Amino acid sequence: MVNASGNKMTMALGRFDAAEANRIFQSAQLFMIIVCGSLAILVTPLALWAPLPWSVSLDERVALAALFFEVLLALFGGLSEAVFKATSRYALGTMLGNLIRLGEWAGSILGLVIFGSFSGVAICALLARAGGTVAGVLLAQRGDYGLYWGTSQASKDEIKSMVRPAVSFMAFPLANALSFQGMTLLAGALTGASTVAVFNTYRTIARVAVQLTAMFSHALWPEFARLFGQGGARAVEALFHRSALLGAVQSVALSLLLYFVSPWLLQVWTHGRIEFDRGLMLWLLAYAAVGGVWHVPRILLMATNQHVGLAGWALGAGGLSVALGWAFGVLWRIDGIAAAMLLSEAFIAAVCVYLAYHIFFRSPRLKGYVS
Asked: What sections of the protein cross the membrane (predicted)?
């Protein structure tokens, strides 16, 4: 809901419609207050008194309750980051969000040093998160952008209009769980624990290219939303075409570079305990290169709340990767699992690129690009 409302707010401000943006913002606030408040009321007694299948001390129960509140505060605090994104302060909002997470970590370390208990760690981290959330709310309010904290302008129809894209956003973490954790479990089941260590090490190195491309594409998120709100597909067309090309070139070039430096990286990172396997590294670098190619198109769909169709395909691709991983893994062991990852990634990349360019089919110039 935070992402869906943030996109709508950004697009509304792109049209210079502050009243609509404020109505969306306050509707999202009402939704988050109801959901987070209800969950807080529900999970507190469960954490403190519900019977659990293992022995849990009071210290651990208090820590569990504090961690629940920490998560709920983080979710609600996402509204502040949405305001920064919508008001062309994306860099400030991102830096503040990272500082809050850093402060949360520092609070947990302080709790460990002072109290030496689970509850001390969790409560101090919660206090740091609460302080950061308050700071985010206050800083987000600064400036005359027409967005105000409160619920007086909240609209039930606005909330309803955001439910579908909000639910669709939840599909992507599930798809990632299938593609990442699912393949790790599969590698362990088919090849053993020692091979899992090799597989995850190689995949981590290969995905450096994906992470760097993701940094580039996420910086485009507010710009895509603002331009789309300002003038529709035609307004965002030029930026998207150049960014998609640059993102693809960047992903492929970084993957090629990693191929040549990966033997050295493995030597330094693992102290020579994991040897360089040319074939496995090629499979995973090809998978990472394809993964980076569809990052910018995916961000366009997500930034404009047109990701609903992609969400279903992403879940399907996650399931496909596990199914192909099992079939290929039985035949070709770890190389087969890597090949399955490449095929499923190519499938979802093709779907995503098609859906992204489909937005522009009304533009004759971009029709030529697609052709």
From this structure: 30-50, 62-84, 105-128, 178-199, 244-266, 278-296, 308-331, 337-357
